[in-house]
Amino acid sequence: MTNNEDRLAYMSRMAEAAERTFWGYLGCRIEELNDRTVTISLEAESHHLNLIGIVHGGVLSSLLDNAMGLAVLAARPEEKTVTTNLNVNFVAPLHVGKLLVEAEIVHQSRKMITVSGRILGGEGNLGTIGTGTFRVID
Fold first, then answer.
1. pLDDT per residue over 59-72, tens digit each?
2. Of 36, 39, 42, 90, whose CB count within 10 A is highest?
3. pLDDT for 31-46, tens place per residue?
């Protein structure tokens, strides 16, 4: 992408297409993005919870994967990538309300991209951290 305006237009088209996928099913929204970082949000509702009333670990893992994957997509829009590794640490419970997911590229080579991410609860409390590795496929 040549400039930020092109990147935003591209990401807008991608977000629209993603509405029909798992991204849209979860309820993800793009809050902010550039060529190295992204912030997405989710309004966590009762159907995102597990039986003990906190946000399900699968939802949190999916949010991290989505945010980190979006960071990769913004950095390498002309290439196809897939997640090859996802590490998730649940450090505190998260509840119903707005969750913010921040992801940042920490390293990239020709074929591999490593990203870190974190999920914050409504009051800015840290709930989940993770890293992901993405492979550029031909």
1. 999 999 999 999 99
2. 42
3. 988 777 899 999 999 9
Cβ neighbours for 90, distance < 8 A, ≥ 6 positions apart: 57, 60, 127, 128
Any idea what the CATH number is for the domain that residue 26 is in? 3.10.129.10
Task: Give the residue numbers spanning the domain of 109.
Answer: 4-137
Structure tokens at 97: 């309300």
Burial (CB count within 10 angstroms: exposed 0-12, middle 13-18, buried 19+), residue 51: exposed
Task: Report the distance separating Cα 9 and Cα 103, nearest Å.
Answer: 20
43 φ/ψ angles, rounded to the nearest 5 degrees: -85, 95
Residue 113: which H helix or E strand, with range? Answer: strand 112-120
With a CB cutoff of 8 Å and minimum separation 6, the contacts of 130 are 61, 64, 68, 86, 87, 88, 89, 116, 117, 118
- The reported pTM is 0.90
Total of domains in the chain? 1
